[in-house]
Amino acid sequence: MTVAAPPVVDVEPRAQRWGRWFGILLGALVFAVALYALREQFATYNVRQIRHTIRNLDAAFIVQGTLFAVAAYAVLVTYDILALRYIKHDLPAPRVAFISFIAFSFSNALGFPLLLGGGLRYRLYNAAGLSSADIAMTIAFNSVTFWLGVLSAGGGALLLAPSGSADVFGVPLLAMRLTGVGLLLVVVAYQVACLYRRSPLRILGWEFLPPSGRMAAAQIAVAAFDWALVAAVLWAVIPQPPPTLAFGVVLGAFVIAQVASLVSHVPGGLGVFEVTFIALLHEYVEPTRLLSAVIIFRIIYYLLPLVLALVLLAANELSRGRSRLARVARLATGWVPVAAPALFSLTTFIGGAILLFSGATPEMRSRLRFIGDLMPLAVIESSHFVASLTGAALLVLAYGLGRRLDAAYYLTLFALPIGIVTSLLKGWNYEEAAVLTVILLTLIPARRHFYRRARLTAEFMSFPWLLMTGTVLALSGWLGFFAYKNVPYSNELWWRFALRADAPRFLRSLVGVSVGVALLAMHRLLRPVRIKTVEPDPATLDRVESIVRASPDTLSYLALLGDKSLLFSEDGTAFVMYGVEGQSFVAMGDPVGPPRHRKDLAWEFRALADRNGAHTVFYQVRMHNLPLYLDMGLSLLKLGEEGRVPLRDFTLDGGARRRLRRTVRVAEAEGGRFEILRGAAVDAILPQLRTVSDEWLATRGTREKGFSLGYWNERYLRSTTIAVVRRGDEIVAFANLWEGAEREEVTVDLMRYTPRAPEGAMEYLFVQMMLWGRDEGFAHFNLGMAPLSGLENRQLAPIWNRVGSLLFKHTENFYNFQGLRAFKQKFDPVWEPRYLASRSGLALPGILTNVSTLVSRGLRGAISK
């Protein structure tokens, strides 16, 4: 990729950039402290004891825990059902169950509920027809329900727990009871507020009504029941619990440990949950049994739902074209294209983590002897080393799958079989091989979801992904040192090769993975920057002009102004034009050029914005490209509608065109004469056009705009066709035309006139340009945008509509938006929506302000004419 642009600066404030790194370092520090605490708690235990405890757990308890988990996820679906009732939006129950299950399985397992669960809900609910405001309210409602569950379950557990549990929590019994009462009082206050307050609440610009008293009661009941069921999963799988361990004690410890996990921001609460839960209950139950229970709990409640989500995805892929599963396929059609890359990304990440954790722990002796009888020692040793390297590679490839990179797809197809084979050869770990095989078989038919032809090393990992990857690598290292803590270290360990030499194999794999990750990081940090910033010189604009003239989209002519940066495709036949303002990289329209480059260019533009810590924004995009922007995780805001007049049958005949015929007669009776000029003829009249332009600006008391609108620029005007109205020899009005390739459409940009122009000069110009366009064989005349027309007045999101209306009204107010739609309607156009694709939520006002500032050439222009 190359970029032609005015200089681009880092738009991310230093404080925000340091804040992001501080969050990562804090999470890493908390995770390290948790691992150290776990090591201290299990100083006298080893991995074999934990494995033995898990093996000896009664299968009936595991079944009981699994049933509790199924019930818990069923209750979680009720969160979304209540939220949809609150926003008064009905969806089929199976679809709600799909969306809720997928979103909760992600957020529960990885510990980023707002980022992952909220992001998935946005994508899936948007595909189901919900607006951005509806989805935001759904996410907010679910968050409130979640914390009501924390307060009610935690308060009830502290209030009703037996007296002996005070020693567990290390506080006086009275303090524990009072804390429980305090938590429950908050829940009661919420219920009372919902019963009696009917006026809207306004928080951070959002305005919404509290739910009804009945719905609030349902929220509290559902949330409390959910927390109780999840705690019951863990309670059911604690090996040999003492009779004195009441469920209320486990519930209280579970709630405290979960809150600690959330506050820590460690992915999935790994380490933090274990340390907190074991510290609270170690006087009741031996730590090895508690850790065994937590491991089983994580498998039942976190891992299995993710695997089930993958199976559902695979079932959809395999059911296409099969009549007996057609209903399932239709049901999944809306969410599979959106969720598939994220699901494959997560499952591949889990597969990599499994290989790393397996390489850090001792092999089962019976299996090792079995494989040792079949294979040479060199094969076992090398398989262990390669399996660990493959695990680390899968962590990196998983990120590329989430970004829909075709290179990541093919490399993953190459890495997974290696992981399968080495899992079997290093210790006959058929369970790991089975998991990797399922991932591979479901990934193979999903090629169409990975369409980006970008280099894997060109992508910067997101901060959450870096944190998750670092967490897995650190945890695998800690697990190995914990497993082999009783093996005395010596230099000879590095060179010891034997069938039962698990510790030396771990050390060699640890070094190999560390060196591999370090080399990858160095390559990424030290490689030259591929995107270069240069001034768009005349040669660059000539290159752009050839692409513009080959594009059916007339909006591409805005690139010829030279006021926007240009991101080119690899072969230089397509580009994205964009501007930088505040914390926003704003693309003007859709990518320009051959359709085969559209997806890659859009993703490259997002990567460019990400590298600069900025928001990705696409302004005035067409409806047929919306799936692309949804795939990129952007939300959509309707800006208005664009009118296109069909020209093939356009005529002034008939009663409906009486007013237009009168306009033509009056203008020509006053001496008006229409002409079309090109090339050298335009050069000759530029001084006259400049006079008309300056007089028009002065008469209206406005100034030039930019970005999404043309302005006086002689080079730009020479590259377009000019329509003029003469009165005698004087030019009294003019407009410049954009002509789309393949005669698809023609449209007007600048349109200016003097007070000496005939009556109705603007309407006269439009009529004559349409007649000329029809005679030239154009299919449509594009009247341009009617901003804010066709918007739905959503009750739950009035604030964003008002903000958008205010900003865009001031952006181009010399076009008189309030009468613009009515003026254009007289030509009987076909209206097509235009959208803004960007982040939603609290970032939206800033993004709209940045767009307004770009168009108005400064904040001063955005709030004045």
In short:
This protein is an alpha+beta fold.
What is the mean predicted local confidence, pLDDT? 78
User: How many alpha or pi helices?
Assistant: 31
Strand line-up across the major sheet? 1-4-5-6-7-14-8-13-12-11-10-9
Q: Tell me which oligomeric state these chains represent.
A: single chain
Would you identify the regions where 5 or more consecutive residues have pLDDT less than 50? 5-15, 320-335, 528-534, 790-815, 859-865
Distance between the termini: 38 Å
Percent strand equals 5-15%
Total strands: the figure is 14
Helix content: 55-70%
Write the layout of secondary structure elements.
Layout: E1 2-4, H1 14-41, H2 47-55, H3 59-86, H4 93-110, H5 113-127, H6 132-160, H7 165-169, H8 173-196, E2 201-203, E3 206-208, H9 213-236, H10 247-264, H11 272-281, H12 287-319, H13 326-332, H14 336-360, H15 365-374, H16 377-402, H17 406-427, H18 430-443, H19 463-483, H20 502-526, H21 538-549, E4 565-568, E5 575-581, E6 584-588, H22 598-611, E7 615-621, H23 626-631, E8 635-646, H24 658-669, E9 672-677, H25 680-700, H26 714-718, E10 721-727, E11 730-739, E12 745-753, H27 761-775, E13 780-787, H28 798-811, H29 817-825, E14 830-838, H30 844-855, H31 859-862
Parallel strand pairs: 6-7, 12-13
Antiparallel strand pairs: 1-4, 2-3, 4-5, 5-6, 7-14, 8-13, 8-14, 9-10, 10-11, 11-12
